[in-house]
Write a structure and sequence with these properties.
- The chain has helices at 8-33, 41-55, 60-73, 79-84, 89-107, 109-120, 124-139, 144-162, 165-182, 191-202, 209-234, 247-250, 255-280, 285-293, 296-306, 324-327, 332-350, 353-365, 370-385, 390-407, 412-422, 434-441, 447-475.
- By secondary structure, it is mainly alpha-helical.
- Among the domains are: 1-86, no CATH class; 89-198 and 206-327, no CATH class.
- Helix 11 (209-234) packs antiparallel against helix 23 (447-475) and helix 19 (370-385) packs parallel to helix 21.
- It is globular, with a radius of gyration of 22 Å.
- The model is unreliable at 1-6 (pLDDT under 50).
Length: 479
């Protein structure tokens, strides 16, 4: 008989509690929200979904499907609108990336790359540092989701070989959260940064590429240290040796490994090309064409679909690098899960619910000074980003932050930066960010672990953003 998993009884009780608490809280939220401009059914449905997601009362993908049905039953959306969210282009970045990840596992390339990484970082804590820093640096120049998609299949064999669930959870969270934090480092690191920069310029202020990095990279670097310490402490990662995997680097390369590596490199080049062209020739016609047509989703799908053509077998037993029976093993539930978050977030934006909550909070707190407004909009952005995409959060909060600051007679730059950086710092739920969804999709991390560590990390992030802006903005003359 296998020994019981630590905490399993608590998680079972939490699921039972969440199953009944979700509808009860939804009814209370509905009653409290009646009479307002946004439909009361939406905050009630969001409360139900978030509680069920957090407690795993139902499988997260099932919660997303129930939420989609709920939006139709309550008249919040038509069937076409509700289920159209399950065709959001970002979801196909997941599909293509998951194809590559599955092929890495099937051909043994993931094991080879993992063995190479363990040769560099020989201890568990050292590896967490290595993957977090790698994700941080990569996501400064490509999307957070793309950086996560590249690293996860490399670290998963190490997590599985360790036999330590806590270490495995810490490892995949280091990848996902390192990428999310690194995304704030440059204006091109993540879409909310572009939105924030546009909001700053709309207020008559200019912020150069280097100015942005001078503010955000130090904040991100300190946040990276907080990330590592949080994972070490909350998940109890011991300073022990990694499982030996040197044998994976000594065997001969197979045709399948070469094919997957080729697709992998082409995907990385495709994801980097728009950024490189934007920096080298921002006004060129080729830059505009690539930005419009060579999207991250297209790159991921082309690279993933190429695996069904590229060779993966031997002359005696030819086969492609990936066959459909293997491809269908990817976690389709994560795609459904993230689609539900996209749907609820877009409805909150479209109905004005997010805007009304933001204004109500500003009125309730009476924030009027520069740093009180920065603290307010940063906190609101972090909370909103837990259930709304970071792009949608920034779209709402960046202009609102600037307006609040101008109305108070303060510089809008620190407030807009606080709202923009905060929108990338949702770490609690699988639906909060693409990297979170990918990390959850590996099966190595439980929702409760993500929520527990994510709450602590949210608080650390809030303090570092507000404190960092309080130090850096005056130094750079941005107040």
């Amino acid at each position: 008989m296998e020994p019981p998993v630590p905490g399993e009884g608590f998680e079972r009780a939490l699921r039972r509690l969440g199953l009944f608490a979700g509808p009860a809280v939804a009814v209370l939220v509905y009653l409290a929200s009646r009479g307002g401009d946004p439909p009361a059914a939406l905050p009630a449905l969001m409360a139900l979904a978030v509680i069920w997601w957090m407690t795993e009362a139902l499988p997260p993908a099932v919660v997303s499907l129930v939420a989609a049905c709920g939006t139709v039953l309550t008249g919040l959306a038509t069937p076409k609108e509700a289920f159209g969210a399950f065709g959001t282009p970002l979801l196909y970045l997941f599909v293509g990336s998951f194809f590559i990840a599955e092929a890495m596992k099937v051909t043994g390339l993931a094991a080879r790359l993992a063995a190479t990484m363990t040769a560099v970082a020989s201890t568990r804590r050292g590896l967490i540092v290595a993957v977090a820093v790698t994700g941080f640096v990569m996501s400064m120049w490509m999307s957070n989701s793309a950086a996560t998609a590249i690293l996860l299949p490399i670290v998963l064999p190490i997590a599985a070989a360790s036999g330590d669930q806590r270490f495995g959870a810490a490892l995949v969270l280091a990848v996902a959260w390192g990428a999310s934090v690194g995304g704030i480092g440059t204006p091109v690191g993540t879409p909310p940064n572009v939105i924030g920069l546009a909001s700053i310029r709309a207020q008559g202020h200019d912020l150069s590429f280097l100015d942005w990095m001078a503010v955000s990279v130090p904040i991100g670097a300190v946040m990276l240290g907080g990330l590592i310490a949080t994972l070490w402490w909350l998940l109890g990662v011991r300073q022990g040796p990694l499982p030996a995997r040197a044998e994976a680097t000594r065997r001969a390369w197979t045709p399948g490994e070469r094919s997957v590596l080729l697709a992998f490199v082409l995907a990385i080049l495709g994801w980097l090309t728009p950024t490189v062209l934007e920096l080298a020739a921002p006004d060129a016609a080729a830059t505009a064409w690539v930005d419009k047509h060579l999207t991250e989703e297209v790159v991921a799908l082309l690279a993933g679909c190429a695996l069904f053509v590229l060779p993966g077998g031997t002359p005696a037993a030819p086969r492609p690098a990936l066959v459909w029976a293997e491809a269908v093993r990817i976690d389709w539930g994560v795609i459904l899960l993230f689609a539900g978050g996209v749907l609820l977030g877009s409805l909150a934006d479209r109905t004005g619910l997010s805007a009304s909550w933001g204004r109500a909070l500003a009125d309730a707190t009476g924030a009027s000074s520069t740093w009180a407004i920065v603290a307010l909009v940063t906190a609101v952005s972090i909370v909103m980003s837990e259930t709304t995409s970071n792009t949608a959060t920034a779209t709402l909060m960046a202009p609102l932050a600037g307006q609040l600051a101008v109305a108070a007679g303060a510089s809008p730059v620190p407030a807009v930066l606080g709202a923009t950086l905060g929108s990338s710092f949702g770490f609690m739920l699988p639906i909060s960010t693409g990297p979170n969804a990918m990390a959850y999709g590996t099966g190595a991390v439980r929702v409760f672990q993500m929520v527990r560590a994510g709450i602590v990390f949210d608080v650390i992030g809030f303090a570092l953003i507000v404190g960092g802006l309080r130090v850096m903005c005056p130094l750079l003359g941005l107040v």
